[in-house]
Amino acid sequence: MKLQSWYIKKGEPKPAVTKQFTTFNEFIQHFKEISKEIEKNSEDRKRFLQTIKDNTDVWPEAIYEKADIEQLRQLKPALTSRILMVKTLFDIEQDPADKEEYRKILDKFRELKDALEERIAFLPNNRESESITFEYDHAKILDVYKFCTKHIFEEDEVKFHQFTTSVANANFRGIFDKTSTIKSKLLYIICVLADILDNGDWYKRAAKSVGKTPSRCSGVNVNERWKIRADKLKEPANALK
Known about the structure:
Elements: E1 3-4, E2 20-21, H1 24-40, H2 42-56, H3 58-65, H4 69-92, H5 96-122, H6 138-151, H7 160-169, H8 173-176, H9 183-197, H10 200-209, H11 214-218, H12 224-231
Antiparallel strand pairs: 1-2
Protein backbone atom coordinates (compact mmCIF):
# COMPACT_ATOMS: atom_id res chain seq x y z
CA MET A 1 0.00 0.00 0.00
CA LYS A 2 1.40 3.43 -0.93
CA LEU A 3 -0.22 6.58 0.44
CA GLN A 4 1.19 9.93 -0.57
CA SER A 5 1.17 13.41 0.91
CA TRP A 6 0.53 16.22 -1.55
CA TYR A 7 0.97 19.06 0.93
CA ILE A 8 3.90 21.46 0.55
CA LYS A 9 4.10 24.59 2.69
CA LYS A 10 4.17 27.86 0.80
CA GLY A 11 7.71 28.90 -0.03
CA GLU A 12 9.16 25.43 0.40
CA PRO A 13 10.67 23.64 -2.64
CA LYS A 14 8.81 20.67 -4.05
CA PRO A 15 10.56 17.49 -2.85
CA ALA A 16 12.19 15.22 -5.43
CA VAL A 17 10.29 12.28 -3.96
CA THR A 18 6.75 12.57 -2.60
CA LYS A 19 6.50 11.41 1.00
CA GLN A 20 4.92 7.97 1.18
CA PHE A 21 3.40 5.85 3.97
CA THR A 22 2.94 2.12 4.24
CA THR A 23 0.03 2.07 6.72
CA PHE A 24 -3.16 4.06 7.14
CA ASN A 25 -2.23 4.88 10.76
CA GLU A 26 0.99 6.57 9.63
CA PHE A 27 -0.87 8.49 6.96
CA ILE A 28 -3.70 9.56 9.29
CA GLN A 29 -1.20 10.84 11.85
CA HIS A 30 0.67 12.78 9.16
CA PHE A 31 -2.50 14.26 7.75
CA LYS A 32 -3.70 15.34 11.19
CA GLU A 33 -0.48 17.29 11.52
CA ILE A 34 -0.65 19.01 8.15
CA SER A 35 -4.38 19.72 8.50
CA LYS A 36 -3.54 21.85 11.55
CA GLU A 37 -1.17 23.87 9.37
CA ILE A 38 -3.74 24.18 6.60
CA GLU A 39 -6.50 25.19 9.01
CA LYS A 40 -4.48 28.23 10.08
CA ASN A 41 -4.05 29.59 6.58
CA SER A 42 -6.90 30.09 4.11
CA GLU A 43 -4.41 30.66 1.28
CA ASP A 44 -2.90 27.23 1.92
CA ARG A 45 -6.38 25.70 1.83
CA LYS A 46 -7.13 27.33 -1.50
CA ARG A 47 -3.87 26.02 -2.96
CA PHE A 48 -4.61 22.55 -1.63
CA LEU A 49 -8.14 22.68 -3.05
CA GLN A 50 -6.78 23.63 -6.48
CA THR A 51 -4.22 20.80 -6.32
CA ILE A 52 -6.94 18.28 -5.61
CA LYS A 53 -9.18 19.65 -8.38
CA ASP A 54 -6.30 19.47 -10.85
CA ASN A 55 -5.77 15.78 -10.03
CA THR A 56 -9.41 14.65 -9.96
CA ASP A 57 -9.79 14.10 -13.71
CA VAL A 58 -7.08 11.43 -13.93
CA TRP A 59 -9.03 8.96 -11.79
CA PRO A 60 -11.80 7.89 -14.20
CA GLU A 61 -9.22 6.98 -16.85
CA ALA A 62 -7.16 5.02 -14.31
CA ILE A 63 -10.20 3.11 -13.05
CA TYR A 64 -11.92 2.33 -16.35
CA GLU A 65 -8.87 1.62 -18.52
CA LYS A 66 -6.78 -0.54 -16.19
CA ALA A 67 -7.67 -4.20 -16.67
CA ASP A 68 -5.20 -5.84 -14.30
CA ILE A 69 -6.78 -6.79 -10.98
CA GLU A 70 -3.63 -6.03 -8.96
CA GLN A 71 -3.25 -2.57 -10.52
CA LEU A 72 -6.83 -1.77 -9.61
CA ARG A 73 -6.35 -3.01 -6.07
CA GLN A 74 -3.36 -0.69 -5.70
CA LEU A 75 -5.57 2.25 -6.63
CA LYS A 76 -7.97 1.59 -3.74
CA PRO A 77 -5.81 2.79 -0.80
CA ALA A 78 -4.69 5.82 -2.81
CA LEU A 79 -8.30 6.73 -3.57
CA THR A 80 -9.31 6.13 0.05
CA SER A 81 -6.57 8.49 1.17
CA ARG A 82 -7.91 11.21 -1.15
CA ILE A 83 -11.37 10.81 0.37
CA LEU A 84 -9.86 11.14 3.84
CA MET A 85 -7.99 14.30 2.86
CA VAL A 86 -10.98 15.96 1.23
CA LYS A 87 -13.31 15.02 4.10
CA THR A 88 -10.91 16.55 6.62
CA LEU A 89 -10.60 19.74 4.59
CA PHE A 90 -14.37 19.90 4.12
CA ASP A 91 -14.83 19.74 7.89
CA ILE A 92 -12.37 22.56 8.64
CA GLU A 93 -13.23 24.87 5.73
CA GLN A 94 -15.10 28.05 6.69
CA ASP A 95 -15.54 29.71 3.30
CA PRO A 96 -19.01 28.63 1.95
CA ALA A 97 -17.91 28.59 -1.70
CA ASP A 98 -14.79 26.48 -1.03
CA LYS A 99 -16.75 24.18 1.29
CA GLU A 100 -19.18 23.51 -1.55
CA GLU A 101 -16.25 22.73 -3.87
CA TYR A 102 -14.93 20.21 -1.34
CA ARG A 103 -18.39 18.64 -1.08
CA LYS A 104 -18.56 18.18 -4.88
CA ILE A 105 -15.09 16.64 -4.98
CA LEU A 106 -15.91 14.39 -2.04
CA ASP A 107 -19.05 13.12 -3.81
CA LYS A 108 -17.00 12.53 -6.97
CA PHE A 109 -14.30 10.57 -5.15
CA ARG A 110 -16.88 8.44 -3.34
CA GLU A 111 -18.58 7.67 -6.65
CA LEU A 112 -15.20 6.71 -8.14
CA LYS A 113 -14.48 4.44 -5.20
CA ASP A 114 -17.79 2.65 -5.77
CA ALA A 115 -16.89 2.25 -9.45
CA LEU A 116 -13.45 0.92 -8.56
CA GLU A 117 -14.88 -1.64 -6.15
CA GLU A 118 -17.38 -2.78 -8.79
CA ARG A 119 -14.60 -3.25 -11.36
CA ILE A 120 -12.50 -5.23 -8.89
CA ALA A 121 -15.47 -7.41 -7.95
CA PHE A 122 -16.43 -8.27 -11.51
CA LEU A 123 -13.12 -8.67 -13.32
CA PRO A 124 -12.82 -12.23 -14.66
CA ASN A 125 -9.44 -12.84 -12.95
CA ASN A 126 -10.78 -11.90 -9.54
CA ARG A 127 -10.79 -15.16 -7.60
CA GLU A 128 -13.33 -13.73 -5.20
CA SER A 129 -15.87 -13.48 -8.02
CA GLU A 130 -17.50 -16.29 -9.93
CA SER A 131 -19.16 -13.99 -12.45
CA ILE A 132 -18.77 -14.38 -16.20
CA THR A 133 -18.14 -11.26 -18.24
CA PHE A 134 -20.14 -10.84 -21.47
CA GLU A 135 -18.99 -8.60 -24.31
CA TYR A 136 -21.17 -5.73 -25.53
CA ASP A 137 -21.13 -2.75 -27.88
CA HIS A 138 -20.41 0.36 -25.79
CA ALA A 139 -22.26 2.83 -28.06
CA LYS A 140 -25.37 0.66 -28.23
CA ILE A 141 -25.46 0.13 -24.46
CA LEU A 142 -25.10 3.89 -24.00
CA ASP A 143 -28.24 4.33 -26.14
CA VAL A 144 -30.10 1.87 -23.93
CA TYR A 145 -28.85 3.59 -20.77
CA LYS A 146 -30.02 7.02 -21.96
CA PHE A 147 -33.43 5.54 -22.75
CA CYS A 148 -33.58 3.98 -19.28
CA THR A 149 -32.77 7.27 -17.54
CA LYS A 150 -35.83 8.78 -19.22
CA HIS A 151 -38.22 5.89 -18.58
CA ILE A 152 -36.98 3.45 -15.91
CA PHE A 153 -34.66 4.92 -13.29
CA GLU A 154 -33.06 8.18 -12.15
CA GLU A 155 -29.62 8.96 -13.58
CA ASP A 156 -28.45 10.03 -10.12
CA GLU A 157 -29.33 6.61 -8.69
CA VAL A 158 -27.90 4.47 -11.49
CA LYS A 159 -24.68 5.69 -13.06
CA PHE A 160 -23.56 4.51 -16.48
CA HIS A 161 -20.67 2.48 -15.03
CA GLN A 162 -23.12 0.55 -12.83
CA PHE A 163 -25.39 -0.10 -15.82
CA THR A 164 -22.52 -1.41 -17.98
CA THR A 165 -21.32 -3.60 -15.11
CA SER A 166 -24.82 -5.06 -14.84
CA VAL A 167 -24.88 -5.73 -18.58
CA ALA A 168 -21.39 -7.26 -18.62
CA ASN A 169 -22.20 -9.57 -15.72
CA ALA A 170 -25.87 -10.24 -16.56
CA ASN A 171 -26.82 -9.15 -13.05
CA PHE A 172 -29.45 -6.43 -12.58
CA ARG A 173 -30.31 -7.03 -8.92
CA GLY A 174 -28.64 -3.81 -7.78
CA ILE A 175 -30.58 -1.69 -10.28
CA PHE A 176 -33.79 -3.66 -9.74
CA ASP A 177 -33.70 -2.82 -6.02
CA LYS A 178 -33.23 0.93 -6.51
CA THR A 179 -36.06 3.11 -5.21
CA SER A 180 -36.61 4.94 -8.50
CA THR A 181 -36.60 1.83 -10.73
CA ILE A 182 -39.82 0.96 -12.57
CA LYS A 183 -39.38 -2.78 -12.26
CA SER A 184 -41.76 -3.93 -14.97
CA LYS A 185 -40.01 -1.78 -17.57
CA LEU A 186 -36.58 -2.94 -16.44
CA LEU A 187 -37.70 -6.54 -17.01
CA TYR A 188 -38.63 -5.69 -20.57
CA ILE A 189 -35.32 -3.87 -21.13
CA ILE A 190 -33.56 -7.09 -20.11
CA CYS A 191 -35.49 -8.74 -22.93
CA VAL A 192 -34.40 -5.97 -25.33
CA LEU A 193 -30.78 -6.30 -24.24
CA ALA A 194 -30.92 -10.05 -24.79
CA ASP A 195 -31.80 -9.42 -28.44
CA ILE A 196 -29.04 -6.80 -28.76
CA LEU A 197 -26.41 -9.11 -27.24
CA ASP A 198 -27.85 -12.14 -29.05
CA ASN A 199 -26.87 -14.45 -26.19
CA GLY A 200 -29.31 -16.93 -24.68
CA ASP A 201 -27.07 -17.70 -21.71
CA TRP A 202 -26.88 -13.97 -20.89
CA TYR A 203 -30.68 -13.73 -21.00
CA LYS A 204 -31.15 -16.62 -18.57
CA ARG A 205 -28.59 -15.21 -16.14
CA ALA A 206 -29.95 -11.65 -16.33
CA ALA A 207 -33.53 -12.79 -15.76
CA LYS A 208 -32.48 -15.05 -12.89
CA SER A 209 -30.64 -12.14 -11.22
CA VAL A 210 -34.01 -10.44 -10.64
CA GLY A 211 -35.86 -13.64 -9.79
CA LYS A 212 -37.53 -14.12 -13.17
CA THR A 213 -37.36 -16.31 -16.26
CA PRO A 214 -36.80 -15.01 -19.81
CA SER A 215 -40.47 -15.62 -20.64
CA ARG A 216 -41.54 -13.53 -17.64
CA CYS A 217 -39.35 -10.66 -18.86
CA SER A 218 -40.62 -10.75 -22.45
CA GLY A 219 -44.25 -11.16 -21.35
CA VAL A 220 -44.28 -8.49 -18.63
CA ASN A 221 -47.29 -6.19 -18.62
CA VAL A 222 -46.14 -2.78 -19.91
CA ASN A 223 -47.72 -0.16 -22.16
CA GLU A 224 -47.67 -1.41 -25.75
CA ARG A 225 -46.71 1.98 -27.22
CA TRP A 226 -43.79 2.19 -24.78
CA LYS A 227 -42.79 -1.37 -25.69
CA ILE A 228 -42.62 -0.38 -29.38
CA ARG A 229 -40.26 2.49 -28.49
CA ALA A 230 -38.10 0.16 -26.41
CA ASP A 231 -37.95 -2.36 -29.26
CA LYS A 232 -36.48 0.31 -31.54
CA LEU A 233 -33.35 0.15 -29.41
CA LYS A 234 -32.60 -3.16 -31.11
CA GLU A 235 -32.10 -1.34 -34.43
CA PRO A 236 -28.51 -0.46 -35.50
CA ALA A 237 -29.06 3.30 -35.42
CA ASN A 238 -30.29 5.23 -32.39
CA ALA A 239 -34.04 5.43 -32.97
CA LEU A 240 -34.65 7.90 -30.15
CA LYS A 241 -33.55 10.98 -32.09
